[in-house]
Specification:
By secondary structure, the protein is of the alpha+beta class. It contains 7 helices and 19 strands. The chain has an 8-stranded antiparallel sheet with strand order 12-18-17-16-15-14-13-19, with helices on one face. A 4-stranded antiparallel sheet has the order 2-3-4-9, with no helix packed on it. It is globular, with a radius of gyration of 23 Å. The two termini are 18 Å apart.
Length: 383
């Protein structure tokens, strides 16, 4: 691949989404045996429900007969869906079990059934090759249901390509400018960071800000745990990207000089910003997020305050991301350019390129994609 083509790929503005991957389709409480949820994942409309025994099911949301949306139908018996138009019924495998006005079933009467599993408070679906759908490939989000952590989150219907959200989360210097009243401070863009390729599908970006004034968000949080706190802090942001679109961000502050950079965080407060982004279409995404913490676990008040506070922060991101997508669409001839702060996001794009190439959906694979960079695993990687 030429340098020109590589630059075009890394700086792509509308990025295709892999299909052979797990995507969160809903919070687990949204999927029930009382009704059918309609959701589009990676361009594929799905009808999602639970069987009477509690197993999640995801069927293509179009009846075999006349393509009526199955999500407009109803659940019948222990595990079947009935089409709202002519009453055809389908089991969890997508096979038709009943045709109207005839006893003989057409052997071709079926709809695609997508692998679906519960994990980490979400229902996940695999829109690609079912034979490749190994649940062990679901990214690690154990802080979502680990009793050592507490928290809550919401869903954003983001009006932008999923890659724009990944870019946003892989470079947090934007907090200085977009979230100035809550998370922002000058040291965000002034501090050094490292980018590390942990494996073929895992990248970390680490930033420490030593001996700084706590941003308003963190001043409140550390005083929730230590009411008498005053002074300066060491602040950390450790961003973990897992392919294709999950980003878990280890964040927190501790009083300066108490050992947090060396590994002792006991004098501060530690949270995880949990994000998993599901492409809906080329220009829309389902953005599931939560904020979890490992302190004051029994306080519902703190859980609610953190959820509502982070919701306000993310609303600022949502406005910016939609404006960015609108500008991309209005200026199709304008290019993206990358800065050193984009190092993590550029490695994300290389990993996604590799996944797309493996599915036969990308002819050229950029040099530096994971299979060409195994010698860099476990090391700091260049931008």
């Amino acid at each position: 691949m030429t340098n020109e083509t590589l630059r075009d790929r890394v700086n792509a503005k509308i990025f295709p989404h892999p299909l052979d991957a797990w995507y969160a389709v809903a919070w687990d409480h949204e999927v029930t045996h009382k009704g059918i949820l309609a959701r589009t994942v990676a361009g594929r409309p799905m009808a999602i429900y639970r069987t009477e025994s509690g197993r999640p099911v995801a069927l293509a949301d179009a009846c075999w007969h006349r393509l009526a949306p199955l999500s407009m139908g109803k659940l019948v018996g222990a595990d079947e869906v009935q089409c709202p138009y002519h009453g055809l019924r389908y089991n969890p495998a997508g096979r038709c079990t009943r045709l109207p006005a005839q006893e003989t079933l057409n052997p071709s009467a079926s709809v695609p059934s997508f692998p679906a599993v519960d994990r980490y408070r979400f229902v996940w679906v695999w829109p690609g090759d079912p034979a490749a759908a190994d649940p062990d490939l679901i990214p690690d989000m154990h802080q979502m249901d680990d009793p050592a952590w507490a928290g809550d989150g919401l869903t954003i219907d983001a009006k932008c390509n999923y890659q724009l959200i990944l870019d946003n989360l892989m470079d947090l210097t934007h907090e200085e400018f977009v979230h100035g009243s809550s998370l922002g401070q000058d040291e965000l863009s002034q501090s050094e960071f490292t980018t590390r390729l942990e494996s073929d599908n895992h990248v970390t970006v680490t930033r420490w800000m030593i001996d700084v004034e706590p941003a308003p968000f963190w001043a409140k949080n550390i005083r929730d745990r230590f009411p008498d706190f005053s002074g300066r802090v060491d602040r950390w942001q450790i961003i973990h990207y897992y392919a294709p679109s999950t980003i878990c961000i280890d964040v927190g502050v501790a009083p300066t000089g108490t050992g947090a950079p060396e590994g002792d965080r006991s004098h501060g407060v530690n949270g995880y910003v949990m994000n998993t982004i599901t492409p809906e279409t080329e220009r829309t995404s389902h953005y599931f997020w939560a904020f979890t913490r490992n302190y004051c676990l029994d306080s519902q008040k703190i859980t609610t305050e953190l959820r509502d506070g982070v919701q306000g922060v993310f609303r600022e991101d949502e406005i910016m991301l939609q404006a960015q997508q609108d500008a991309i669409d209005a200026n199709p001839d304008y290019a993206f350019y990358s800065l050193n702060i984009d190092a993590g996001g550029m490695w994300v794009r290389r990993i996604l390129d590799r996944m797309l190439a493996a599915e036969g959906r990308l002819d050229d694979v950029p040099s530096g994609a994971p299979d060409d960079a195994r010698a860099l695993v476990g090391q700091e990687v260049p931008s």
